[in-house]
Amino acid sequence: MMKSYCLESISLEEAKEKQFSLVDTITEVFEGDQFLQLGELGVCSPYNEPLTTYKVEEVLAKYFHAEKAALVSGAGTGAIRWSILALCKSNDTILVHKAPIYPTTKATVESMNLNVVYADFNNITELNKVLNTTEITAALVQYTRQQPQDCYDYKAIIEIINAKHIPVITDDNYAVMKVKGIGVEYGAAVSCFSSFKLLGPENVGVVIGSAVVIDYIKKMNYSGGSKIQGHQAMEALRGLVY
Question: How far is CA 141 from the centre of its chain?
Answer without folding.
Answer: 10
